[in-house]
Design brief:
This protein has a two-stranded parallel sheet with strand order 1-2. It is built from two helices and two strands. The chain has one domain. The chain has about 70 residues and is an alpha+beta fold. Strand 1, helix 1 and strand 2 form a beta-alpha-beta unit.
């Protein structure tokens, strides 16, 4: 399978809505896929659960705020 790069932006408010996006990405992409994921932090609890879900299925690399463009940080 060739390498594929996918871009996605998530805006998840309630915790119970985390499963569908993760399940969708798992169904669509294979193990060699690089997913560039952006999201808006709404809740620390939801953020922690979301990160744990991603780490279960993918190798997660976070970009520190200091390395991002300030124009795009909320």
């Amino acid at each position: 399978m060739e390498r594929f790069i996918a871009f996605s932006y998530l805006k998840v408010y309630p915790e119970h809505l985390l499963d569908p996006p993760v399940a969708t990405l798992n169904a669509l992409f294979g193990p060699k896929t690089t997913i560039v994921l952006g999201y808006e932090l709404r809740s620390t609890n939801v953020h922690e659960k979301m990160m744990n879900m991603w780490k279960t299925n993918y190798e997660v690399k976070s970009i520190p705020k200091s390395k991002t463009n300030p124009k795009y940080i909320w």
